[in-house]
Amino acid sequence: MNDRQERIRNILVPVISVILGFALGAVLMLIFGFNPVTGYQAMFNSAFQSKMSIGEILVGAGPLIFTALGFSVANSAGFFNVGLSGQALCGWVASIWVALSMPDTSKAIVLPLAIIAGALAGALAAAIPGVLRAFFGTSEVIVTIMMNYVILYVANHIVNNVMNPDIISNKGVTKIIGANGSLRAQWLTNIFGGSRVNTGFILALVFLVLVWFLMKRTTLGFEIRSVGLNPFASEYAGMSSKRTIVISMVISGTLAGLGGVVQGLGTFMNYFVQGSSISIGFDGMAVSLLGNGSSIGILLSALLFSVLKLGGQGMQFAGVPSELANSVIPIIIFFVAIKYIVQVGLARVSGGKKEEAVVKEILNEDETAKEHENKEGGEL
Questions:
Q1: What percent of the chain has pLDDT over 70?
Q2: Engineered SS bond to 91: which of 118, 131, 197, 322, CB 3.0-4.6 Å?
Q3: Burial 312-344 (b: 16+ CB within 10 A, else e)
Q4: In angstroms, rounded to a whole number, what is the distance separating the alpha carbons of residues 363 and 349?
Q5: Is the predicted pLDDT of residue 113 greater than 90, yes or no?
Q6: Which H/E stretch holds residue 173?
Q7: What structural domains and CATH numbers belong to the chain?
């Protein structure tokens, strides 16, 4: 199997996963007595009915791009950062706090400071599990899951008991930030018919390019990918696995924090007490997996998820319950998760038994390498 065939197969796997997701979603609608054609028609009509709805698609995609990039960087280093929700929440709270604390200062000062504060807050939240993983061999999955809860309750405590009462509107809700701290731009609002679209989406596009350049064209990116593939060989080649682990988690947290910044300064323009972990973290993981960690894939996946979430609300007007509409996303991720079956099926269709055997052998080798790495992970 040559490189060209492998690239084509890597593209086809998420595409087929999306198609199968929609197909199985349609089957579920039929089982429960709903018309899938009418349901999907309502979904896409709702998502693309006006300039405003298209703007809202971009609003939803911006934070997802950041959290997906954060997950992609950590995943390239061989780690599963499940703490994206908490790291994004840190960015949201920090950016709003800074913006509201300087109501009379110039936008040229407030907005950069608020963005930097949010990014640093996310980086700090990710550095903790990174250090624990690198120097003590703890599981980053367990630590980041637990930190999501810690950050959630600390953030709610900060809003309720720590922030200056002058920036609080009601119990657990801050005031709306001023124009000097907002990511919204009037020209974008005018283009998209009064939607909440903001420069956060443009910032996300910039970071898609920056992260691609970092991972593909820099020494640090090469080290991150090398440690992810084989930390022991990387150590033998003179790379510091511990340093690379911490740096990759910090970068991941910085990107997730920026996702929270866009959520705060662009989408809602304030902060309010959260009852559970914010969804952009877990959705960002799904976006990254569907996009195979690539910049183009993440962009397209983020737009797709935003369409599904926005259009899912429109399906209710066709009589389809929101629960069935929302089931399409997890079904798509299910097929991405079992890409082994999809890849083997593609090999069987395109190349016969010989190519199918080659694909199975490659996938088995990858799984064996991952198992070995996980067993020895505590000794890094």
A1: 88
A2: 118
A3: bebbbebebeeebbebbbebbbebbeebeebbb
A4: 17
A5: yes
A6: strand 173-174
A7: 1-32+321-380 (no CATH), 35-319 (1.10.3470)
